Amino acid sequence: MRRVFEGLSSAAVVLTAIMVIAGCGATPEDEAEFDVKVAESSLSFTGWVVYDAGTRCTVGGSTMHCCPTGYAMIGAHLSNDVFKCAQLSSTSGSRFLDAGGRRNGMHACPYGSVMVGLHVSNDYLACQYPGTSVVSEYVDGDPGTKDSYPMHVCGAGGYAMSGIHVSNNLFNCAR
User: Residue 38: helix, strand or coil by DSSP?
Assistant: First the structure.
């Protein structure tokens, strides 16, 4: 009987150690925080992000700098002509040209769509509807959120650009 008890006791110690190492015994303060902003975002990204300096596309007869197919703009360094692009989980329909839509005091894609390209001198946007719905927008202002590039980007939490005011360095950011 003593041998059975020692065997069970050893097994309990090993099981407890495994649970603690795996995080099952951690206090709530020690556990990673759940990112509510990402969970609430209706835009769905794959996690792939690229800095793009050379992709061109033709939309509505106008050739411009665009993110690669399937990607949306999440930031831009206009003087270097570099975009930060995040891959969308899915898209709906083709890219289309917006030559003058306005929202939040700036040129913007129609509500529900996101920027995939920009022609600064013609003030043209290449827009596309993501496969998931946009539910909110905010204006990221001057000086704006910056990443390590450094470039102006939409804030964390699953946002993509949906509009831009080039001269005021303002982005309309949607999720």
Answer: helix
**Token digits for 24?**
């099952």
Q: Can you tell me which residue has the tokens 């496969």?
A: 131
Per-residue pLDDT at 54 exceeds 70: yes
C-beta atoms surrounding 6 within 10 Å: 10
**Cα 172 to Cα 175: distance, rounded to the nearest angstrom:** 10
Structure tokens at 4: 């059975």
Phi, psi of 13 (to 5 degrees): -65, -45
166 phi and psi angles, rounded to 5 deg: -60, -50
Task: Answer yes or no: do 20 and 102 share one domain.
Answer: no
Full domain range(s) for residue 28: 1-32
> 9 and 71 share a domain?
no
Same structural domain, 24 and 65: no
pTM across the whole model: 0.77
Phi, psi of 124 (to 5 degrees): -110, 145
The answer to whether the CB of 100 falls within 8 A of the CB of 107 is yes
